[in-house]
Amino acid sequence: MAAPTIQHTFQVVRRRVASTLGDNIYGTAAGGSTTTLTDTGDIDRFPTTPQYLLGAELSTIIGTNLGQTRRITTHAKTGGTVTLTVSTWLAPSSDTTYEIHDIGGIGFEKEQYDNAIKNAIDSLADAYFTDTYNVYFGIERHNNPQGAPGWPRHEYPMPSGFNYIFGIDRLASPPRAFNPMGYMDTYRALGDATARTRLSQGFKVYETGMYEWVSVAMNKVGSPTDSLTCTINTNSSGVPSGTVPTNGTSDTVTGSTLDERLRYVVFRFDPPVYLSADTTYHLVLARSTAVDSTNYYNVAEDTSNVYSDGTLSTYDDATWSAVTGSDIGFAIFAASTLWIPLRHKSGWEYKRVGSDFIYIPKLPREGTPIRIRGGAAIAEPTAETDNIPVRTEYVVAYAIQELLANASGRRGSRDSTGQARAWAEHVMKSTPRPIRHLPPNAIQVFA
User: Fold this and answer.
1) pLDDT tens for residues 332-380?
2) Which residue blocks in 295-446 are alpha helix, DSSP H?
3) How far is the CA of 387 from the CAs of 28, 81, 133, 215, in angstroms?
4) Domains of the chain
């Protein structure tokens, strides 16, 4: 496990870095205009004769019209109200949090602080990557009990964002309803035209209980950027009724993550949905945005009518229509907390041949959800209120070292005795850079 982490927001960490260098003032504005920010708070203690904040950098951080940075052209005070004048901007309000840096021209700009903090986070990423245990795809065996011809697929795209892989598991539960991809002989488009805003497949499960996973053989066409959901509907004369049982809507799947090559897309129902044995239901696939004839999805279709417990239906934004003799490739799995680890080398392997992929030579049943256990890369913060999953003292120390190392040529320093640098060096020497002890068989991912 990584060293314990007390999380702070990006804004708090920047303030700590700047405060250590004597270059931080912050508060919440009382108001402002298109050329001013006013405050009646602690900023009142800074002298206006001479104008202490003249030339400093003022940034709005949180609240109304956040994200603006200007240089202060006048620092004035009337009574208890301080007025900071800047070039034209969008007026702040009483909920606007602000920061002031580069005070007296001997500090640093907000962007410099931000970049130093992000670099510090990156330098610690190997020790603080985030554990992930997500399901990423379903097995594509293409063989089935009926003996239809197929081809087992052993290579799967390596999901992005991993620093390491610790292991790969398969769901222990077998499918309770199943129409394998090996029967596919064509495609059925989804979301390319009004005639196909949704698709559905009728099915029955052979065991009453809670169901958590639905695998559907799909691919993308073009570059769709919306998301997909799968819902369960009850039956009405052979087509979906529009009635969704409790918990009958899946988590969303990001459309851009689909492959142009046909693969099993796994939809999760969390919490699971209760289904009764030998009862007709319909799984309904829908995209989140309007139809697009260039960027859409395909579903594997079997026109030989092998699956006998339901049929494919299409929806034209008004009416469901059954497609006699056609079914889609799918598999439905019961809820289960039991996952079977695949042995490294003999059961799975990470390879780099052209592009990274996962190699799984021994195949469970088709459509079976596959879970990857590993460490996902830490994402750099994108908002002031994002938490940083790295110990604050390391980030502050690394950021200060970078800032001071690049401070040559600046007009003096508030840290003329080098105390901030000495403190940063002390933190890094007395508390060495954390090293994570990885589980056995952990594989570093290079992509």
Assistant:
1) 999 988 999 999 888 999 987 656 788 898 878 889 999 999 988 777 7
2) 392-405, 419-430
3) 21, 33, 21, 34
4) 1-23+106-129+378-447 (1.10.3230), 24-105 (2.40.30), 134-375 (2.60.120)
